[in-house]
Write a structure and sequence with these properties.
Elements: E1 8-19, E2 23-24, E3 30-31, E4 39-42, H1 44-59, H2 75-86, H3 101-114, H4 116-121, E5 122-126, E6 130-135, E7 138-140, E8 143-148, E9 152-158, H5 164-169, E10 173-191, H6 193-199, H7 203-215, E11 227-238, H8 247-252, E12 254-258, E13 272-276, E14 285-289
Antiparallel strand pairs: 1-10, 1-11, 2-3, 4-8, 5-6, 7-10, 8-10, 9-10, 11-14, 12-13
Amino acid sequence: MAPIENRYEFVYLFEVINGNPNGDPDAGNMPRLDPETNQGLVTDVSLKRKIRNYVQLEKEFKPPHDIYMQEHAILNQKHQMAYDAVGVTPDSKKKALPKDKAKARELTQWMCNNFYDIRAFGAVMTTEINCGQVRGPIQLAFAQSVDPIVPLEMSITRTSVTNEKDAERKDREMGRKHIVPYGLYRAHGFISAKLAQQTGFDDDDLDLFWRSLTQMFEHDHSAARGEMTARKLISFKHDSALGNAPAHKLFDAVTVERADDQNKPPRSFSDYEVKVSREAIPNGVEVMEHL
């Protein structure tokens, strides 16, 4: 299938209830936040990880939907697969691509053809076994909570001990848990048709991406993350590859406002009202709601 021919932007809303959507290891795994506004943050890396995990579940690591950035993956082994398929030997001492430019392009294209996340997000593959680098068509910004959040730190207990020595001294262990009582997060994303031409990202890949955003939290539940739910996914499809409007104007057309008393802490999605000002959408841009 041919690469996508249209530029897209999208607004993605998701919520967390009594969970930690993205802990900060530099702050004792507390929920990430902007210290000036106390608005919560979730990194693009965290969201991409969940998208990769969903694709793994649906496609079961089968090319052309294998996943490059897996947990405990040895990337050089994956690069060697490309060299074996193309029929060239890597120069691990110089860490360089083959001098034959056609073979070098073939290596990078093989990686794009077989790994979904490279086609979507791109990758830097310039390790000892060099497969080049590619810029992906999908870029995500940090998600930010609509309102300030109040991270809570709670004590938890474990009634089992680790070893016999601990059993002699204590019958339980204490721990800490960090949660956000409620937070509605908003993320913006960009999809470039021109960059999709370089990686081969096509309409089937795009459908899988939309599916991942709408379903990924359903397969990512854990005690640490509480209840996380995708609430809204609004995309803007341009009728050209270069686009018909600046991205920020399209994002401004989507407003998220409190539906009730603003002095009351939000505790559910029903406390908000999401509006799309369709009259502000320029000609040549189609609005689609996936959720």
